[in-house]
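F.,

This is the one I mentioned.
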């Protein structure tokens, strides 16, 4: 019932708990009532104490006689949920609309009432388009940590909360905050925090825009994982059934690289690592000085710490040690390393020690006196190795060594320096007696006081027995405290403990006792007596609470170090430009008006008025002035790239605002930036570098007066990346920029999408900054929605420029064959046997006539490769037709890459009537400009170009286009795990652009070297690069900007990449060493600045650090190109023999390196080119490939020079030492592309000198990769048929992996175990004591501490890289760390 009066708020009233007793129903009164509202709108509000529980039978109860029938006005759902002033949509409506747009079913709501209130779950469902079955997702549920957000007083409110959560799960990449009612905006913020937490825990799939696709992918991945798990379990079961095989399989790592069939062999067959004592001692000395723990100051959560403490306690470590370690370390692996370094060997769990190891025991010694002294010194808990080093450093004097060890102990720990006695203390003692007299008097006193407990083993050494010493269950532990006379006696006494106690406890006893003596016994005559007495009373308490391990670690372990406070390197903040001053300047306007009247400017203006862009000049100016983002679309040649920026600048001049104009125009290619800068400068009658300039990598032509700067997209990105990382820093770095123009947006390159993601955030902060997007085939709606979806006030305007093209007639492949009467020669049939042309129709004859159609047969023979003979014949035919009709004009040919252009140019140059010119981005600017000039008299210009001529530049006199339909685009090859440029069919949009080039000056013709049916199968538009390439480089660039949440940043890109692709990229960066957890390493900082594949960049960085930069840059160039060796089918054996002349067993890449070096030496010595080409022919080398390698090497050096890295004047990498290092560095670049070598059982032959080990036959050596199981060396590799490998190699790195009848690997480099440890993935310690696991699957037998030492050495190497980042001119040729690494690699860890 409704009643007037004050009462609780409507929502609270509706939620009030009804009483248990239900009052009798009121007698109905016949009265006309209104039709009840829908169920969701029927809410009864009441403050009556007579009938607090309204009836559910409908609104038929009349009001009391004393109350009007109308009652107070009822609140609507919109007012209840959104508030009285809310006029927008509600969460339930927004979710329903989203489901309708996605063609999903209506959301299903399930309401549950609990003691906490009402809770609602939402389930989404959709119809599978293939099976037409309804797929229903599990209900969206909040985790326990956030479940309190779901409870509400009413079912209605709970329903809208559930809808908000469901909406966030499928639309988290959109900012819908403003679309929600006020209370639900706060929920959206809560869900954002929850998403970040879920992503960190690997649950990013929960927030995919298409949850049904995510569900399918997870189910498929689960099925694959289950299948693999079953295979591994079957292999383990088989291994356990074999005699002695039960304990050999690796827990948690399956069968390793050898596949399931090799679990039986377990750890017995894996390589063994050893480290010589001398080498280990030198490495420990180095690490004591250099190592740093938890370099980035990461703090683990309490849950992580608790889990580690529990796990390691079960593995045999003391809980107190683990609790201390987790406070200093960043993760589980570093905690384990810390424990193995700092805990004395006698207190380590047994599994951490090598086989047949006994602490402090020496098998043989040639100096018994020295060994005896070391043993006595180490009895107090000091490290045996450290005792030996200190004893040797003090010339074998045991007393001085004991004093030095005690000083080191006192200096150890956080309060160490306070406990070292000062000089003043040494002078305050009794000086009227000699130290010898005082010592003898004290010895007599001790003997009288302690009686039989006192013994004196030498004039300078006495000991006293301590009674009733207890260590856990062990009672009456025999314990003696020794006192050694020191040169500073009586101010200083050398103390030691002899007892069956753990080393760190004995050291703690010594340190605490000396601390007591220093504080309480200063100036006492009988100091030794009081120390012994105090220790008798307190020793058991010290044993129970010995203190932290860090306080004694410096002397308990030879590899431990003194704690160093982490000092994060001070980041140099860049100097940001001053903000723009938009105060009108009348003088600027006056100067402009005078300039416009100049005759030469008027002449240029007359030409500009002929362009279609001029017709929309006012539209462009007004749209840019009124909107923050402007999208300009127009056909190529309309003048949008050259005119739009001039229109905007001229408008600013006319308004007196020219002084504030600073426009940056991005272009995807260098040639475009250079060409447009030249063209616009010419039109504005000013030299390049004044009003109009350009900035490309390695070249800058601008001045203080430059208003328009053309740049490559990468140049602008680098400027933003080095600004500091935060949005505020980026905004500050662009303070002097008024307009950013992004051209050719339709190409959707990785750099362009990355740039737009950054700029959008900048636009929110700087409302005066203008962004102009330009393209020939722009999907305007996509970008308009991208900038307005967040509803943060960004306005978007659109301007379309009409094209200016003439009709173009199309000819397809079958037409061209008929026109030219072309017939391929027989040799193509052999080459194209497995490369038949497939357009989906040509290979499906539907009638007898089609089976014998000669055109179809020719198309079948041509295959999908470019046929250069057909290309030449087509050009001949076009040239003939134009000449017959006395028509001038050029021919433009589109080919996919530089190699194809070079081959086509050579073929076309044989036609005397043609003037052939190449055009691609790698040409020098002078050579590129030749395509715009008219041809010589009597010649027809033929431009052979890549896709740069599609939209980037315009050649005015082209009347015919030959389109091969091919393009080279960046793609990811999972077989090689590298980014590659591969040939593919172009999109229909790109082919349309190419076609339009023929109609620029007159009606033209387009000759398409593909069929019409194939054209219909081409993609409509190119897929955004961000969706088809690996994202390691992009993720690294994002992280290098200071953005920690890389996944969230990329989720806001115009086309977000798959979450799994981002996770995979982040994981790969960790495996490569570019990321340490979430932190960017010094190596990662360097790689982010090198415009090359990450693996090539890693190789060059290590080359700069280890002093062999030239060789590493050359190998990187070879990787970026291809091997220079040729292998003609008819001369395969001779080619292999020629290749082996350059091979020394170091692998394929070093073989290629030697061939290039010999060729390069000839070219540098100005050997006649005829002789150089003859050398190439004799050795089956490609002259063109070698030239490409040299060109790529030059580009890499240019990039390195920008970073300040240049090769040293004299290279020292010659001889076997450098080859061992080069093998290691080359192999390191390919991690994780590694294969394990499995040798057969050794065989021996008898000889006069005894048994001799035989080299195994090549066919008995097996190779295993992580994902592929067994692999085989490709016959074309220099390693094919190898029976042994240089440098004790146990692994191969590979560049290429392919599958035919077998899985083949090639481009190989052999390397040893220490190369793997130093440069590959993370090192894990097997907690069963069998050895180490590298990169999650490669196993090595050996002492766990070896892995720890090398892991620490990796951190020191990264420190050197950090120094190189700060000072690129540093030379590490004599650096101790570098020498240690080289020694480990060359000698495989053994002593020299």
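My design for it:
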């Amino acid at each position: 019932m409704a009643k007037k009066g004050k009462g609780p708020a409507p929502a609270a009233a509706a939620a009030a708990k009804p009483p248990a007793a239900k009052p009798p129903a009121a007698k109905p009164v016949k009265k006309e009532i209104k039709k009840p509202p829908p169920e969701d709108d029927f809410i009864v509000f009441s403050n009556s104490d007579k009938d607090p529980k309204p009836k559910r039978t409908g609104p038929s109860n009349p009001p009391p006689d004393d109350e009007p029938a109308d009652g107070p006005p009822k609140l609507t759902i919109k007012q209840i949920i959104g508030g009285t002033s809310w006029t927008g949509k509600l969460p339930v409506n927004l979710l329903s609309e989203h489901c309708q747009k996605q063609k999903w079913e209506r959301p299903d709501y399930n309401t549950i009432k609990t003691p906490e209130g009402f809770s609602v779950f939402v389930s989404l469902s959709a119809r599978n388009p293939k099976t037409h079955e309804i797929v229903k997702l599990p209900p969206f549920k909040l985790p326990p940590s956030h479940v309190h957000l779901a409870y509400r007083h009413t079912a209605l409110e709970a329903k809208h909360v559930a809808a908000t959560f469901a909406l966030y799960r499928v639309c988290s990449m959109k900012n819908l905050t403003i679309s929600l009612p006020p209370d639900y905006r706060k929920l959206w913020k809560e869900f954002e925090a929850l998403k970040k937490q879920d992503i960190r825990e690997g649950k990013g799939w929960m927030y995919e825009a298409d949850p049904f696709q995510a569900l399918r992918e997870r189910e498929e991945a689960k099925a694959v994982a289950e299948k693999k798990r079953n295979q591994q379990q079957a292999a383990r079961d088989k291994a356990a059934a074999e005699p002695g095989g039960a304990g050999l399989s690796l827990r948690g790592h399956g069968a390793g690289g050898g596949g399931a069939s090799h679990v039986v062999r377990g750890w017995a067959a894996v390589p063994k690592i050893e480290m010589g004592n001398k080498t280990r001692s030198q490495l420990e000395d180095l690490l004591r000085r250099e190592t740093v723990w938890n370099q980035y100051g990461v703090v683990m959560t309490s849950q992580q710490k608790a889990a580690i403490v529990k796990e390691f306690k079960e593995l045999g470590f003391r809980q107190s040690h683990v609790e201390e370690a987790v406070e200093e370390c960043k993760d589980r692996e570093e905690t384990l390393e810390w424990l193995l370094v700092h805990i004395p060997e006698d207190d380590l769990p047994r599994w951490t020690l090598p086989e047949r190891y006994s602490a402090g025991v020496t098998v043989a010694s040639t100096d018994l006196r020295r060994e005896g002294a070391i043993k006595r010194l180490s009895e107090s808990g000091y490290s045996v190795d450290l005792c030996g080093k200190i004893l040797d450093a003090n010339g074998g004097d045991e007393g001085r060594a004991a004093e030095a060890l005690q000083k080191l102990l006192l200096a150890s720990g956080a309060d160490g320096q306070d406990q070292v006695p000062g000089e003043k203390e040494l002078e305050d003692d009794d000086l009227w007696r000699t130290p010898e007299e005082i010592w003898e008097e004290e010895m007599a006193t001790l003997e009288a006081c302690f009686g039989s407990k006192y013994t004196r083993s030498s004039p300078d050494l006495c000991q006293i027995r301590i009674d009733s010493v207890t260590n856990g269950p062990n009672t009456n532990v025999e314990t003696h405290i020794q006192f050694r006379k020191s040169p500073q006696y009586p101010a200083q006494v050398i103390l030691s403990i002899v007892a069956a106690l753990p080393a760190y406890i004995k050291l703690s006893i010594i340190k605490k006792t000396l601390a007591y003596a220093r504080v309480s016994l200063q100036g006492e005559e009988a100091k030794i007596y009081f120390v012994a007495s105090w220790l008798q009373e307190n020793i058991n308490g010290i044993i129970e609470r010995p203190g932290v391990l860090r306080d004694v670690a410096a002397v308990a372990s030879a590899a431990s170090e003194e704690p160093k406070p982490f000092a994060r390197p001070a980041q140099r903040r860049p100097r940001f430009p001053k903000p723009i001053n938009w105060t009108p300047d009348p003088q600027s306007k006056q100067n402009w008006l005078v300039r416009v009247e100049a005759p030469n400017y008027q002449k240029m203006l007359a030409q500009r008025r002929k362009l279609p862009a001029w017709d929309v000049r006012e539209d462009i100016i007004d749209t840019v002035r009124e909107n923050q983002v402007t999208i300009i679309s127009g056909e190529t040649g309309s003048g949008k790239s050259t005119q739009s920026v001039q229109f905007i600048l001229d408008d600013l001049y006319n308004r007196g605002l020219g002084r504030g104009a600073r426009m940056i125009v991005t272009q995807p290619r260098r040639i475009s930036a250079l060409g447009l800068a030249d063209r616009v400068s010419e039109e504005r009658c000013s030299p390049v570098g004044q009003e109009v300039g350009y900035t490309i990598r390695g070249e800058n032509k601008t001045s203080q007066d430059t208003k328009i700067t053309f740049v490559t997209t990468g140049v602008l990105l680098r400027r933003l990346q080095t600004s500091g990382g935060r949005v505020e820093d980026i905004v500050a770095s662009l303070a002097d920029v008024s307009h950013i123009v992004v051209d050719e947006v339709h190409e959707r390159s990785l750099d362009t999408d990355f740039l737009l993601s950054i700029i959008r955030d900048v636009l929110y902060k700087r409302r005066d900054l203008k962004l102009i997007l330009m393209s020939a085939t722009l999907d305007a709606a996509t970008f308009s929605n991208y900038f307005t979806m967040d509803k943060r006030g960004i306005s978007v305007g659109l301007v379309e420029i009409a094209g200016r093209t003439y009709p173009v007639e199309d000819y397809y492949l079958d037409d061209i064959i008929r026109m030219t009467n072309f017939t391929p020669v027989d040799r193509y049939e052999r080459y194209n046997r497995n490369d038949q042309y497939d357009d989906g129709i040509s290979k499906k004859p539907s009638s007898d006539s089609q089976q014998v159609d000669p055109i179809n047969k020719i198309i079948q023979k041509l295959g999908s490769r470019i046929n250069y003979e057909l290309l030449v014949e087509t050009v001949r035919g076009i040239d003939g037709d134009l000449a017959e009709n006395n028509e001038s004009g050029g021919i433009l040919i589109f080919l996919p890459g530089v190699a194809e252009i070079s081959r086509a140019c050579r073929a076309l140059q044989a036609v005397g009537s043609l003037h052939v010119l190449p055009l691609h981005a790698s040409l020098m600017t002078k050579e590129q400009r030749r395509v715009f000039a008219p041809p010589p008299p009597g010649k027809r210009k033929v431009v052979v170009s890549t896709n740069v001529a599609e939209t980037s530049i315009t050649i005015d006199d082209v009347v015919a286009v030959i389109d091969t339909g091919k393009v080279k685009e960046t793609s990811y090859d999972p077989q090689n795990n590298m980014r590659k440029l591969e040939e593919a069919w172009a999109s229909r949009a790109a082919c349309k652009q190419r076609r339009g080039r023929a109609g620029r000056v007159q009606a033209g013709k387009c000759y398409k070297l593909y069929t019409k049916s194939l054209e219909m199968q081409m993609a409509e538009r190119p897929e955004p690069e961000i969706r088809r390439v690996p994202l390691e480089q992009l993720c690294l660039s994002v992280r290098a900007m200071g953005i920690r949440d890389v996944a969230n940043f990329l989720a806001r890109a115009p086309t977000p990449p798959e979450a799994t692709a981002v996770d995979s990229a982040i994981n790969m960066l960790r495996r490569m060493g570019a990321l340490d957890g979430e932190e960017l390493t010094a190596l990662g900082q360097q790689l982010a600045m090198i415009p090359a594949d990450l693996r090539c960049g890693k190789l060059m960085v290590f080359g700069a650090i280890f002093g062999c930069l030239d060789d590493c840059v050359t190998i990187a160039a070879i990787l970026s190109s291809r091997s220079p060796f040729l292998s003609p089918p008819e001369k395969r054996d001779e080619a292999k023999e020629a290749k082996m002349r350059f091979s020394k067993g170091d692998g394929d890449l070093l073989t290629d390196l030697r061939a290039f070096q010999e060729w390069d030496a000839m070219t540098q010595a100005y050997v006649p080119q005829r002789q150089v080409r003859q050398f190439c022919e004799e050795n089956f080398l490609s002259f063109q490939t070698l030239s490409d390698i040299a060109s790529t090497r030059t580009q890499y050096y240019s990039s390195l020079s920008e970073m300040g890295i240049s090769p040293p004047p004299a290279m020292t990498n010659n001889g076997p030492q450098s080859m061992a290092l080069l093998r290691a560095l080359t192999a390191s670049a390919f991690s994780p592309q590694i294969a394990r070598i499995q040798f057969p059982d050794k065989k021996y032959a008898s000889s006069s000198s005894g048994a001799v080990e035989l080299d195994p036959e090549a066919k008995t050596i097996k190779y295993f990769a992580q994902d592929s199981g067994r692999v085989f060396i490709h016959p074309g590799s220099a390693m094919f048929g190898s029976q042994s490998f240089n440098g004790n190699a146990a692994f191969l790195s590979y560049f290429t992996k392919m599958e035919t009848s077998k899985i083949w690997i090639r481009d190989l480099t052999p390397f040893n175990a220490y190369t793997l440890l130093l440069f590959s993935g993370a090192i894990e310690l097997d907690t069963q004591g069998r050895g180490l696991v590298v990169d999650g699957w490669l196993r090595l037998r050996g002492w766990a501490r070896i892995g720890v030492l090398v892991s620490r050495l990796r951190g020191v190497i990264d420190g050197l890289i950090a120094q190189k980042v700060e000072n690129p001119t540093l030379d590490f040729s004599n650096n101790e760390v570098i020498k240690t690494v080289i020694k480990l690699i060359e000698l495989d860890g053994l002593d020299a």
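The radius of gyration is 40 Å.

Talk soon.
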